[in-house]
Amino acid sequence: MDIKYDLGSYTRVLKLASTPSWEEFSRIALIAGAGIVLIGFIGYVIFTIMNTLPGLF
């Protein structure tokens, strides 16, 4: 493990990183929010099916 090499790599990555523009940030937030809503909807559908099926038989 070469600590000097590792620190140099981390420094190089941090120099390349930049803060996103407002447009890029809002697009990422919108996509992430849509994914969360979609996963929640799928979970709700599965929950509803699992609660409804035992009552039918």
UniProtKB/TrEMBL annotation:
It is a single-pass membrane protein. One of its GO terms (biological process) is protein targeting. The chain crosses the membrane at residues 28-47. Keywords: Cell membrane, Membrane, Protein transport, Translocation, Transmembrane, Transmembrane helix, Transport. This is Protein translocase subunit SecE. It comes from Halococcus hamelinensis 100A6. GO terms for molecular function: protein transmembrane transporter activity. Essential subunit of the Sec protein translocation channel SecYEG. Clamps together the 2 halves of SecY. May contact the channel plug during translocation. It is found in: Cell membrane; Endomembrane system. Component of the Sec protein translocase complex. Heterotrimer consisting of SecY (alpha), SecG (beta) and SecE (gamma) subunits. The heterotrimers can form oligomers, although 1 heterotrimer is thought to be able to translocate proteins. Interacts with the ribosome. May interact with SecDF, and other proteins may be involved. GO terms for cellular component: endomembrane system; plasma membrane. The lineage of its organism: Archaea, Methanobacteriati, Methanobacteriota, Stenosarchaea group, Halobacteria.
